[in-house]
Amino acid sequence: MIEVDQLTKRYGPTTAVAGLSFTARPGRVTGFLGPNGAGKTTTLRVLLGLDTASSGTATIGGVPFRSHRRGLRHAGALLDAQQAHPGLTATAHLAALARSNDLPGRRVDDVLAEVGLTPVAHRRVGAYSLGMRQRLGVATALLGDPPVLIFDEPVNGMDPEGVHWARGLFRRLAAEGRTVFLSSHLIGEMAATADDIVVVGRGRLLAAGPVAAITGSGGSLEDVFLRLTSASVDYRAGGA
Ligand SMILES: Nc1ncnc2c1ncn2[C@@H]1O[C@H](COP(=O)(O)OP(=O)(O)OP(=O)(O)O)[C@@H](O)[C@H]1O
After folding, report:
1. Nearest-5° angle of CA 156, CA 36, CA 198?
2. How many distinct structural domains can be found in the chain?
3. Which PANTHER family does this entry report, sorted A to Z (predicted)?
4. Which residue, 14, 72, 61, is CA-closest to 42?
């Protein structure tokens, strides 16, 4: 379970997140949507203890991520596909993480097979395409077999087969009872993958609930998203 309660994060004069509250539940894929600059990445960074809240709380399984000793066993995240050192092989990258998190070495082969990277596991990550690096990021998130998974733009750079595979993986992880929290700008993809949606604009909650309830008033998820966020878009082509 992910619980964000009255979260506010300021960077100097900029309020990136303003009193945001929502919940992402086990057994569900929850999509996190919002225009550029809405505060999504900031929320994820605070949730993962990479940034501190100005006020409010963001917890995973009832506690702040940083206070958990079990690290990757508690929550797995893909925030940045560039996180692995380009000089390392995928195997070496994952093996080092497994060691430092006290995870069994066999998890490395398991997650490489899960994301389809076994044939290139001994190639340097610097030679990987963006889609392959994203798969490695997903493998890293899965390494500790955690109950909570957080993915920021996970299908960015993936080919259609990869997007299809990722959708099936997220659905399966939720069916196993895990909390799957996904940030993406691909609304069609979200409509096909998510059970619940959290929509933010300018750091504030605009809507939250099951996809069917949010689109219930008519139109596609894209129509509803554009309507909800029309007053919260900071960057629009043509200066309109
Ligand atoms: N380290 C920082 N220092 C100053 N301002 C920041 C910092 N990080 C984010 N911001 C500002 O906070 C706001 C929210 O940014 P954030 O990256 O969280 O949005 P986002 O919803 O993830 O956007 P995108 O969809 O473009 O990735 C923006 O105005 C951004 O400029």
Report:
1. 80
2. 2
3. ABC TRANSPORTER, ATP-BINDING PROTEIN
4. 14
Model confidence pLDDT, tens digit, residues 146-165: 999 999 999 988 899 999 99
Residue in 40, 151, 153, 206 to alter for ligand 1 test, most ligand atoms within 8 A of Cβ: 40
Q: How far is the CA of 39 from the centre of ligand 1 (A)?
A: 6
- Is residue 59 within 8 A of residue 21, CB to CB? The reply is no
Does the CB atom of residue 37 touch ligand 1 within 6 A?
Answer: yes
Q: Single out the residue of 233, 192, 227, 230 nearest to residue 211, CA to CA.
A: 192
Residue at 79 is within a domain: no
> Do 28 and 140 sit in the same domain of this protein?
no
Same domain, 140 and 159: no
ipTM over 0.90: yes
- Distance between CA atoms of residues 99 and 141, nearest Å: 15
